[in-house]
Structures are given as structure tokens and as C-alpha cells.
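Marked as duplicate of an earlier ticket. Keeping the data here for the record.
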Amino acid sequence: MLVGMMGSGKSAIGQRLAARLGLPFVDADAEIVAAAGMSIPEIFAKYGERYFRDGERRVIMRLLNGGPIVLATGGGAFLDPRTRDRIAERGVSIWLDADLKILLKRVRRKSDRPLLQTDDPEETLRKLIEARRPVYELADLRVESREIPQDAMADDTLAVLAAELPRIEELRRRAQSKGFAKAMIHLHPARAEGEEATRQETVRVTLGGRSYDILIGDGLLQRAGELVAGIAPGAACAIITDENVARLHLPTVEQSLKGAGLATTTIIVPPGEASKSLSVFGRVCDDVLAARIERRDLIVALGGGVVGDLAGFVAASVRRGSRFVQIPTTLLSQVDSSVGGKTGINSRHGKNLIGAFHQPSLVLADVDTLRTLPLREFRAGYAEIVKYGLIGDARFFDWLEADADAVFHSQAEQICAVAVSCETKATIVARDETEQGERALLNLGHTFGHAFESLTDYDSARLVHGEGVAIGMVCAARFSARRGLCAAAVAERVERHLKAVGLPTKIRDIPDWRDDPQTILDAMYQDKKVERGALTFVLLRGIGEAFIAKSVDAAEVLAFLKDELNRT
């Protein structure tokens, strides 16, 4: 990964490096231009630098998820800490360091540098160099970019890489058994020292011309008023929460919203899945209307997945669509249900069968709220985090396997795990907002899990959603192995990890289980992925290699369920 200032030679040298190494060469800027259908100056002029940087980060994340390449990044790409973290995790960063005189000579050859469209380009470039140098110094390697033939520069770069690669590889090996934040301490001590206390991550969900931010960090409840007022100054807010969350967090949020000049009304529902019902939905809609919440006002969902799903569906329905903000207070809701715009309630026929796609305007995921969670609830949320590794990010799953304890006990790792999960989901949702195809991957384990929840009557004493998903993911992995889609060792690895953190992994782990295989199969036919009466499952070819299997034979599923119920 070549980083450095505009004009440092990243593209020219990168092409020569790729040829010498026998690897594909990719220019991140060229990828952005191709995706946008317009030049970088046009993107800056039409949408602004923030929009460009967000797209740049997403392009680089996608490229880093592919095979080995030589990648030339834009001059500002390395400034994003999330991009630096992912590059440090998955590649070797090489800083091409050129002095001001050389850079000026090179950039004057082109007039397509948006940041240099000023009265004094030289002074602008000087200030950019000064501001960016401390960040570029965090790269793994430094190569001086000199005025010599580009082939000679490629030789210099390869020589530095060959000399330093053993050291880099050793640092990577040491980092494999540690969390992302701890890995950064080994790889980039200067950065880690400056970010030891707290940090905040932002994930942008972009859906065509619409977008919203997911903020992940600590202290966000106290800042809720400031952040909500930033998107809706002077709005009235109807806070929907449950009795348990109201006792713990409602005063903080109310005080913050009122302090920002936002009028508030609070609607409290009973905790648990029973509140995701038509009767509670109707009552809450009436309460919102009674509070005279207008379409441009805000409904604030303060709570876990139940509250978020219910409040979101209320927002989608009242006045034919009102704005809403998600403030998820459980790990499960922070990594899954608050992101992507799925809202809804349950029916006696199954879970989440009545609802709508309705995107929030803002999501505030405050990891401080995770301290109030019972261990069982935290584990349930962790199952959804594991899901993201299994569906498409094997290295993320590797990290969780190596250092799950850090996610349970360290806020830095919690922020990182939530951010990676949200980033993964946001990327998939951006490509398939209303689940016409790829988004179904996010339901790994859910066809089994939702059936288990339905058959336990959504009794949280027996089974909570994340536990059902954990058992469901093991079932999906074992069913995949049974069909010859993946090795048995893959299913064993999935089960071993979930069991190691204390999650149930077998159907018989559900207390007082009495239902037979046919009853489970019948419940599966209420799954939202069923098409023309045929079962659809998300299955695995390996860790990080999920796919959608349609028209799965019911007799095959029934035989599998019989064996699973007999498994001890």
C-alpha cells in the first residue's frame, strides 16, 4: 500500500512494483472515478471533500478484502484512522516521502488537484505536508522519493521492502493473537500512545442519494442532544423506550435533548419480545400522535432490538413516515438491529413478519451502555458479531477467536468490533437495501434461530435472539458440512468458538425443549426467505465464505434436524 503526498510517485512507482512482483496494480483514485462516473475535481465540486473521503475509504476497504495487490492510495486516504487500521491489519504500508521542491515540480504538470485550487498553491502544499507528515510517519516503511528514473525508484522501494519485511511479518504474527487496538500498539506505538484513553468511530451508510452516520464510542448519551440537534435543530422528540432502559439511561438522554433545546415526550413499553405486537404498536402510534409529533420531528428509539424494531416501525407508519434516531443500548442492537432500516413486529405466525424498511437519520451506539448488560445479553450480542466474520471476513473471525476476551472486557475492542460489524452490514445494505438478494447473507443462522424462538414463544427465560442465532449458525455450519459444502473442521471451529464464550450451540441446549423435527421444519416455512414455498438457507463454503442456497430439499433438512436433536 503506497501512501504519501500528491506527486510523490505512488501510481508510477506502484505500476513498476506490481510488474516486478507479479501482482495486479490498482490505483484507488482511478477506482473512485470509475465508480462515480466523474472526475475527482467534479466529485469535490458537486459533493465536497467529505463525500469523496467517505467513498475513498469504502473503495480501499473493498480492495483490501480482495487478493494480493499493489495499491496506490490517494494523498489523504492514510489520514483516516479506520483506513490505517485496516491497512495495518491486512497489508504493508510504504510512505513515499518527497520534499516540497520535488512535489511542486510534479504537481504543476497537472491542474486536477482540488486541494491546490487556491491563490497560493505552494503555501497550501507546504501546510498540507506539515499537517500530514506525522500521520505518514506511522507507515510501516519509508522510502525517499527522489528525482531519479522511476525504475530506479522501484529498485529502491523493493530493497527497503526486502530488508524490512521480516520485521514486519514478525510484528504481524505477534499481533494475530491480540485485539486490533493492542495490535496497533505493537505496529504503531506513536498512534497508540495518542489514542490510549477513548476514541470514536463513524460508519457512513450510503443508499443512493441518502446517507446517515453511525457513531460508535463512549459518552454519546451525554452528547445525544448536541448530535440530534445537529440533524434536526429545534425538533420535538418522542423517546420510545422500555421500563428497564428507562431506569438506567432515560434521565441522561432526556436531560441532553432538553439541554439542546429539543422538546421531549417519553413513551415507555414493557421489556421483552411481547412488546413487538400489534396491540403495543397501535398504542405507541396513538401516543406519538397525541404528542403532536410531526413528520419533520423525531422519534428516538432508546433501547435494545425490541425497542428499535418497534419504534422504527412506528416511525415508518405515523404520518406515512417520520424521521427517527436509533440509540441502541445492547450489543446486539448496536451491531445489528439498529443498522440497515429493518423495522417490524412479530405475528403469531412468526418473527418480524409485519414491518417496513425505514432508515434512521442517525445511530448513536454508546459502548458505555454495555456495562449495564447482564453477561447473558452481552453474549447474545456477541453471536451477531461472530456472524459478520463468518459471512465474509475470515480475518475478523480469526481475531475474535484469538482475543474474544478483549471484546468482553475492553472498550477499545468493543468499539472496534461494533465498528467492523456495522461497516460490514452497511456495505451489504448499500448494495441491497430491501433484501432482494445479497442482504439475505446477514441472516446466517436465522432460519434455524427464528424457528427456535417461535417454538419457545419468544420466552427470554428459555432463549433470547442471539442465543437462537448462535445455535442456528452452528446448525448452518454443520448442515453445510453434511452437504459437502465445507469441511467438517469448519463447523467444529464455529461451534468451538461459540461454546468457548458461553453460548448455546445445540438445540438440546434450549431449556425444556420438547418439539420434534417436523415441528421445527414447519416453523421454518414462516421464514422471510421462503420463495414459492421453497426453503432458502444461508450456508458456508468456509469461514468468511457464506452464500445463499435456494430451494433446499425439505426431506434433507428434516433428516438433519433429526440427527441434531439426537446430538449430545
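See parent ticket for discussion. Residues 495 and 531 are 29 Å apart (CA to CA).
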